[in-house]
Structures are given as C-alpha cells and as structure tokens.
Amino acid sequence: MPMRTNLHRLHVESSAKAPLKSGSKGGRRWPQQSWRPSLNALLLWAHCMGLICAVFTFAWVIRFRGGLPFIAHGAILADRSDLIFNVHPVLMVVGYIILVSEAILVFRGVSGTKSYKKAIHLTIQAVGFWMAVFGIWAALLFHNAKGIDNFYSLHSWLGIVTVSLFGLQWIFSYAIYWYPGASGKTRAAVLPWHAFIGLIIYCMALITAETGFLEKLTFLTVNGVIGKFSLEAMFVNSIGLLLILYGGLVILAAVLPRAS
Ligand code: HEM
Ligand code: HEM
C-alpha cells in the first residue's frame, strides 16, 4: 500500500466523497520509487539552500548596506538609522523564514519520539514568530526615525497578515496538539488542515520577503543610490531566486510520502 502525506490524506478523503470525473480513481498518487525524489537528498539540499540564503542575506547587508548596528562598517551611510533597517531583512529571512522552514522539516529529518519532534517543531516556530515581531519592530523604528509613514505598502500589509495568521495558527495548534490537547479523533481530522494552512502561511511569508527585496531595490535604484544592473542589484535578485528555490525544496519535502 503506498504511503501518503497528510495533504494526500486530505485529497483522497475529499475525492472519496466526490469521485473525479476524468476516470482517475482516487486522485493523483506519488509514483513509485524511480520518479520519487529521495527524501534524504532533498533534505540535504534544503538545509544547504537555507544556509546559502542565510549567508547571502548577511553578505548583502554587511558588504553592500553598511552592516548591522552592532557590526557596522564602511562609510556609505550618512545616518545610522539605515543600519537599524538592515536588522529587518536579516531577522525576516534568517530568523523567521529559515527557522520556520527548519521547523517544518523536523518531522522529516529528525529521529525520536513523536512528542520530541512536536516539542522541537513548536519551539522553533515560536522563536521564528518572535524574530518576525522584532524584525517588524526594527522596520518601524527605522520608519519613525526617518519620519516615514507606516504600513502603507502591499509588502507591509502582506507581512502583517502573514505574521498574524502564523501567530493564530501557532495558538490553535498548541491547544490541539500540545496543551490541553484534543481527542485523537479531532487531532487526526485537523492534521491535514494544519499542514495545508501551515504551508499556505509559509508561501505567504516567502511572497512577503520577495516583495520586500523588490521594494528595497526599487527604492535604491529609483533614488539613484545604485544602478539597475549594479553588482548589488544582481546580488539581491539572486537572493530572491535562491529563497524561492529553498521554499520549493521545503514544500516538496513536506508533501513527499515518508516512512513513518
Ligand atoms: C516574511 C518576511 C517579511 C515580513 C513579514 C515583513 C514585514 C514588514 C512590515 C510589516 C513592514 C512595515 C513596517 C512599517 O511600516 O513600519 C515592512 C517594511 C519593510 N520591509 Fe519587510 N518584511 C519581510 C521581509 C522583508 C525583506 C526580506 C526585505 C528586504 C529588504 C524587506 C524590506 C522592507 C522594506 C524596504 C520596508 C519599508 C517599506 C515598507 O513599509 O514597505 N522586508 N516589512
Ligand atoms: C504557525 C506555526 C506552525 C506551522 C506553520 C506549522 C506547519 C506544519 C506543517 C507544514 C506540517 C506538516 C509537516 C510534515 O508533514 O512533514 C506540520 C505538522 C505538524 N505540526 Fe505544525 N505547524 C505550526 C505549529 C504547530 C504547533 C504549535 C504544534 C503543536 C504541537 C504543531 C504540531 C504539529 C503536528 C503534530 C504535526 C504532524 C506531524 C506528523 O504528521 O507526524 N504545529 N506543521
């Protein structure tokens, strides 16, 4: 019998009630072995890509944007409040997106009891959430220091909605799967939705980060700070592409069938 993911269970359960017309019985299945990527290889690639995204993000703010407030260098900045802004992309990418990705991968790559994995999963998600809150606070501090309006952009709206949904998902999941904990039947029924909604919120976080990079580059090029084809612009575009690749690997690992 083929092994399925939570998302597959959701799909198969719903298609059992309303069979597909196309003649396909029970919806799509992951092909057997030969066309299915190896989970271990996928996890390795995903972790490496996360590391690369982290290194590139640090490299961008340190090499091109003058650094972080506590490790500032270079003379390109007239005002130290610019350094406060740099905390924002670092916390959002390294502290939030990468931590959340690793938390999602815990059920695939970490061995141990189910409650051990759950404890790691929920703890890393909580740390990621607070990193995101501090990251948004850094952007707010920067805006206030410069007298710029807050929460006017699509990026900021997406960011607020994403982090709020993430916080709600965490609270509900904690109550259902940890304390006080729902009945086994409810936990099983909610699980496909938990994974599905979790991955949607994860995609929203990736989109928010992409719009953030785009917005920052637009400010820098429109104000003539850097050229459209400058090394920095190409570097930031590359971070955007790498982040999407990373997200794709994490999502694929989460929806692949697993051994236990
Ligand atoms: C999931 C990741 C992210 C979230 C949730 C997020 C959220 C936010 C929020 C809520 C604001 C508004 C702050 C205010 O108005 O005072 C903001 C501002 C900003 N963020 Fe992000 N951000 C993320 C990632 C990034 C990244 C990777 C960059 C890349 C540089 C970035 C660039 C900016 C810029 C330029 C602003 C100021 C302009 C504006 O308000 O849109 N963000 N972000
Ligand atoms: C907002 C935060 C959260 C997000 C985005 C999230 C996301 C996910 C995702 C995508 C999966 C599927 C992973 C897979 O099938 O490999 C998953 C599984 C799971 N999550 Fe979460 N989660 C969050 C918070 C929590 C919390 C607080 C708990 C409480 C213990 C929890 C408990 C679980 C459990 C029990 C599973 C299923 C593991 C299994 O199938 O063996 N999650 N989560």
The best one-word shape is globular
Compounds present?
Answer: protoporphyrin IX containing FE
Strand content is under 5%
Q: Kindly name the structural category.
A: mainly alpha
Q: What's the CATH architecture?
A: Up-down Bundle
Report helical residue fraction.
over 70%
How many helical stretches? 7
Count of spatially separate domains: 1
C-alpha-based Rg, rounded: 21 Å
Largest sheet: none
Provide the low-confidence segments as ranges.
1-5, 8-24
Mean pLDDT: 88
CATH topology: Four Helix Bundle (Hemerythrin (Met), subunit A)
Distance between the termini: 13 Å
Oligomer: single chain
Question: What is the fold's blueprint, element by element?
Answer:
Elements: H1 6-17, H2 39-64, H3 81-109, H4 114-146, H5 154-177, H6 184-222, H7 231-255
Helix pairs in contact: 1-6, 2-3, 2-7, 3-4, 3-6, 3-7, 4-5, 5-6, 6-7
The protein binds protoporphyrin IX containing FE (2 copies).
One protoporphyrin IX containing FE (HEM) is lined by residues 5-6, 104, 107-108, 118, 121-122, 125, 166, 169-170, 173-174, 177-178, 191, 194-195, 198-199, 201-202, 254.
